[in-house]
User: What shape does this take?
Amino acid sequence: MNKTGLFELTIIVPIYNEEDNMLRLEKELAEYLSHASVGSCVLFVNDGSKDNSGKLVQEICKRNKAFFYLSFVKNAGLSAAIKAGIDAAQSPYVAYIDADLQTTPEDFELLLPYRQEYALVMGIRTGRKDSFGKKLSSKVANKFRRMMTHDGVEDTGCPLKIIDTAYAKRIPFFKGMHRFLPALIQLQQGKVKQIAVRHFERTAGKSKFNLRNRLVAPFVDCFAYRWMRKRYINYSIHSENISDQVNDR
Assistant: This one.
């Protein structure tokens, strides 16, 4: 067991060139952990940052005993960072939040009460503080995704999510996977709950998304999801005799 297994919730925070946000991120996450309703830790995943983010992550983890990190050799993308965090986590639940702090860790408290009933509890951003172009492209992409996946989710792009770790580890991962987390949980017959959460302006750093990866890529990925959905393998074990057996040799 690694150190995340000592907690009920592991908060995964992908990091890519966010040096201007790191100290504020440390402050808000540390403050949240100090009074979170369940025992929680933070797992930074440094996605091959080219600025000073990696060094700052290591310094932050030295100062905070419930902060941990993974660091990629090179940039692999948001979906890979989330997957790495899920693969490493050994807590019963995993959470996800973006490093830009356009959502607040405090709003995990709105999601946590539903964690035992739902495989995925996720936020819906209210009063979005994004530009008109970003909100329009997000609206179009969400509508197209719902039509293609029938997941019934209003705002899959909201980065505030809590997932039952057992379900999370069974998600079939691919580039762009983070856009389809609700649909991929539903493939496992897991239930999804949506809760309104707050949204804030980005105050530091730069967005990593543009028209291509906010609108064009999701359209293409929808067809990849449709192909995968028809071939997805889902099974449940009825009984077994391989666990906790005594070695008689």
Observations:
- DSSP finds eight helices and seven strands in the chain.
- The chain has one domain: 3-133+154-206.
